[in-house]
Amino acid sequence: MKPVTKKRTCAVLIDIAFSGIINAAAENLLRKKVKNEAFLTLVSPTLLTWGMEYGQLKYSGQTIGYKLMGLRLESEDGAPLTSGQILKRIAHREFASSISYMRDRKNFSKDEGRSLAQDRFAGTIVTTKST
Asked: What is the C-alpha to C-alpha distance for residues 71 and 69, in angstroms, rounded to an integer?
């Protein structure tokens, strides 16, 4: 596995743990107000996780996991990340990237893991500099 890919994997695991903690706290608060189990189980955690990722990437180009692993998400052209890029990246990763990986397994990480399927789709790249 490439060094950047290893860092990205660790960053995702950190983000999942952080998101799980926030979702558990939010569920306890929402359970008193929302009685719909489907919403509490499916919709709320998804919206909260995606919202946290979007906010962190829009604000600093880093999630908590990316920051701890010394990674940053940037536009391929060096411009600031746009809302569209972030949303396209999240949506592609959640809904289509598995198909992309299965179809193109040999070439999914040609550039040391800096650009995976969701990054190519959104025009972003992961760099190894932290702030």
From this structure: 6
Instruction: Provide the 3-class DSSP secondary structure of residue 30.
Output: helix
Total number of residues shown for the chain: 131
pTM of the model: 0.83
Section 26-48 average pLDDT:
87
**Do 73 and 66 form a contact (C-beta atoms < 8 A)?**
yes
Residue 53 exposure: Cα atoms within 13 Å on the Cβ side: 27
Residues 127, 64: contact at Cβ < 8 Å? no
Helices (DSSP H) in the chain: which residue ranges?
Answer: 3-31, 37-38, 44-60, 64-69, 83-95, 97-103, 117-122
